[in-house]
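From the pipeline queue, job 12 of 40. The input is one protein chain; the requested action is below.

Action: predict structure.
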Amino acid sequence: MANKPANGTRIKLSSVDELFNLGGTEEKDGQIRELSLDELHPFSGHPFKVLDDDKMQDMVQSIREYGVLNPLLVRPKGSGGYELISGHRRKHACEIMGIKTAPCMVREIDDDEAVLLMVDSNIQREELLYSEKAFAYKMKLDAMKRRAGRPGAGGNAENGSQVGNHLEKGVKSIEIMADEVNESRNQIHRYIRLTELLPMLLERVDSKKIPFGVGVELSYLDHAGQEVLLRVMDRLAVVPNLAQAGRLKQLGKDGKLDEEGVVQILSKEKTQPGTFRLERKKIDGYFPKDYTDEQKERLIYELLQEWRIRRENGKQE
């Protein structure tokens, strides 16, 4: 029978440094290290904006009271330093406070896995701009497609990605992504269309001066056509409605979009600048409490569409 440790014998437990691989100088995958903020570089093409808003002030206050509770996720850069995958806002909050270092988890991961981790760590945030979702969805879907086409690429159990398994199952990347981000395939494609807009038009979609659906239709115009549209919009002080955007899209498809044509379309049903607004207090009671503004807007448009179809069918009877 094996001897049991005598009463009072101390069992040596791993230290915090040993648990998180903080000891020693050798850099290991998944190691948590205290790194200088000067060594941390933004993720290439990072689609999420870092704003000095109220939420940033809340984060600054949290770090002031409790420190950085969640390590930033980084990967080594070949040219030196580290690329931030997750933690751009935490880094900025530290900079506001004058903090010079932050705890970082160092991971050795490839470009596509880095994109997936970067998007997934940010996409669930509330009140994302249309442009943020648009570019994030595009980056994620492109990365998933590349991983799916890579021989031997498999899912990563650590980050929950199912990419790489769907070739055998006959499931498309867009279908897996739709399930992961809780959007329909069509809605994901509509968001990604926004990445084709000129920055000035996309900014107006973000600020809701141009409705989301109108922005999607206008994204089918080439950049020269979008520039013509912007000039006419500013000159006439108008915003296209959905029907007008559809006619502009068709004109562009036919190769007949010029300034005169845009003026004719936008002048037929001159619209007022800005957006039509509903009083929040009057409509919030009709929706579940966990519905976002985007979900409410989408449902309102769907119900209006059904109402229009019923009304048109009634006229035909």
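Job complete. The longest strand covers residues 31-36.
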